[in-house]
Amino acid sequence: MTDIIHIKKIADIHKALGLPAPKHPLVSLIQIDDKVTGYDYGDFTYVYDFYQIALKSGITGHIAYGRNHYDYNEGCMVFTKPGQAQQYSRTSGVEEEKGWALLFHPDLIRRSGLASQMDSYSFFSYDTNEALHLSEREQSILCELVAQIEEEYSQNIDKHTQRLIVSNIELILNYCTRYYERQFIVRQNHNLDLMERVDNILRDYFDSERAVEKGLPTVKYLSESMCMSSNYLSDMIKNATGRNAQQYIQDHVIERIKNALLSTNEQVSQIAYGLGFEYPQHLSKLFKAKTGMTPVEYRKSIN
């Protein structure tokens, strides 16, 4: 197990990289250059107490957190949030790396409307192999916005500074939401293949009677089987079907219940235990919420 280095302040990053002290204690734009890329991060795990939005160009190495690694290439963005464990390494033969990293502390946005919206930006919980890839035009838009943030905190700070900085951060995140949706659409054929894998995993889970032993399949189980973060999987499924991962699993379970009700004479309790429900009433409650009928009423209505 590697040692963990906990970085609490943005100023500590500046100090470690040999950069001047940040002009604002809660936000900083770091240009990625030889000084940054040449830093020896060592064989450590880093945990930061602030958000990071990074844009890198050029195949330069990889960053890892969780169980996945990602090799940076042209126009790649990665988002991390406070408390995520990260490791860094470099690839030999790298000639050039460029880009920027926007760092901002939760205290910067704490009293703003953005604070309550941060959880809606699910890409902060994506794994790094689910990074955002930008066109040149998209890169240009985001670079202009981060330049405005840098310009704002580089001036004399006044009562408007924080609000304007936060507004630009929110605009960046909203643009990235749009770009991720575009990426899902561009990868539609690939995502259809992934949806087929999702269906196969769910079918195998029930057909192998794993549900009897382990209960109903969870989003966590499905995402791990797909080697994806739960948030990315849910967003991919929602883009393809209009339902999130939990709803998709529930709908699969409902179809299983319907098939069992129509093709067997099993009692509702037998069906419930066979599908992994802890109590039969949980099946009945879910079924009525989804169909408007109890399982018995559904069976009678079809027969």
- Model regions low in confidence, pLDDT < 50 over at least 5 residues: 59-73, 91-95
Q: CATH topology of the largest domain, what is it called?
A: Jelly Rolls
CATH architecture annotation name of the largest domain: Sandwich
Strand order of the largest sheet: 1-3-8-5-6
Structural write-up:
The protein is α+β, with helices and mostly antiparallel strands. It folds into 2 domains: 3-186, Regulatory protein AraC (Jelly Rolls, Sandwich); 189-302, Homeodomain-like (Arc Repressor Mutant, subunit A), CATH 1.10.10. Helix content is 52%, strand content 17%. The protein has helices at 10-17, 34-37, 106-109, 113-117, 136-154, 161-186, 188-207, 210-214, 219-226, 230-241, 245-263, 268-275, 280-291, 295-302; strands spanning 3-7, 27-32, 44-48, 51-57, 61-65, 68-71, 76-80, 85-90, 98-104, 132-133. The strands form 2 sheets. A 5-stranded mixed sheet has the order 1-3-8-5-6. The protein has a 5-stranded antiparallel sheet with strand order 2-9-4-7-10. The protein is elongated and about 75 Å long. The model is unreliable at 59-73 and 91-95 (pLDDT under 50).
Short description:
Keywords: DNA-binding, Transcription, Transcription regulation. This protein is an alpha+beta fold and 303 residues long.
